[in-house]
Every structure is written in C-alpha cells, then in structure tokens.
Amino acid sequence: MRLLIVEDELGIALAIEDVAIDAGFEIAGIAGNKSEALELGSVADIAIIDVRLGDGLTGPSIARALFSGFGLGVVYFTVNPGLIENPKGRPAISKPTCPERIADALSMAAKNARARTHRVASEPTFH
Q1: Residue 67: how many CA atoms within 13 Å on its side-chain side?
Q2: What distance in Å separates the CA atoms of residue 127 and residue 57, rounded to the nearest whole number?
Q3: CB atoms closer than 10 angstroms to residue 89
Q4: What's the DSSP call for residue 56?
Q5: Are 78 and 84 in contact (CB under 8 A)?
Q6: Residues 33, 62: Cα–Cα separation, whole Å
Q7: Is it the case that residue 40 has pLDDT exceeding 90?
Q8: β-pairing, 2-6 with 92-94?
Q9: pTM to 2 decimals?
Q10: Phi, psi of 56, rounded to the nearest 5 degrees
C-alpha cells in the first residue's frame, strides 16, 4: 500500500514516514501543500493529511479531491478535529499522538481501501 503524506512540517512528515515504513507501507511522497498533494495523488493508495497546512485550511478540500479524483483513502491528522468536514468513515488522529495510533489509523485506511478496490473489481460487467 502506497502512502502519501500531506504535512507542511518536515519533522512531523519524516516521523510519520518512519512509522509508516515500519508498519509496512511504501511512501509515495511527501507533500507540503495542496498543489503538491494533488500532483502526487495518482501514485498513492491512501493519504494522511494535516487539516491545516501553510496554505490554510486546505486538508478537507485535499481529501475530497484525492478521494474523488483517485479514490484514495484518507486519514486526517490535526490538532483540532472540529475542523474536519464529514469525518464519518475517515479516521482522524489528534496531535500530539503516538506511533501506534498512526500505524493503527493507516492500517484501517488501507483495509478500507482494499475493501473498496475488491468491491469494484468483483462487480459484474454487462456487455
């Protein structure tokens, strides 16, 4: 499973990267803003997204764009979970956190992404 990390604080992004690699994820890239995230979306399966980046409260719009454009599963990462629009079905991790919570949320998002892919691949086609 390929993970896109959307976080503008490099130290935090690298810590997430270490946790994700230890949990068996391949890193698709690290994006520090919305445009970088959208450029890298096509090479990832899931994304962990900081809700408030340096370019503003862009996390929810990035999540919507990555899900609708590429079908990516999303994990929100934030100090203020109240900023998340429609968090149903999308795990959220509150900052500060521990590596285990990050790994658990990423694993849940990966499981959901695999289930979504399996459902789509197993649907019958009609000619």
Answers
A1: 18
A2: 45
A3: 9
A4: B
A5: yes
A6: 9
A7: yes
A8: unpaired
A9: 0.86
A10: 110, -165
> Given a cut of 50, is residue 125 above it in pLDDT?
no
At 54-108, the pLDDT tens digits run 888 788 889 989 989 998 989 998 887 777 765 556 678 888 889 999 999 899 8
- Domains of the chain, by residue range, sit at 2-122
- Secondary structure of residue 6 in the 3-state scheme: strand
Q: E strands, the chain, where?
A: 2-6, 26-31, 46-50, 73-78, 92-94
Measured CA distances, 34 to 22, 24, 59, 100 (Å): 26, 26, 8, 27
Cα–Cα distance measured from residue 106 to residue 112, given in angstroms and rounded to the nearest whole number: 10
CATH number of 2-122: 3.40.50.2300
What is the distance between the alpha carbons of residues 29 and 92, in angstroms, rounded to a whole number? Answer: 20
**Torsion angle, CA of 54/31/65/113, rounded to 10 degrees?**
-130
Structure tokens, 116: 């979504």
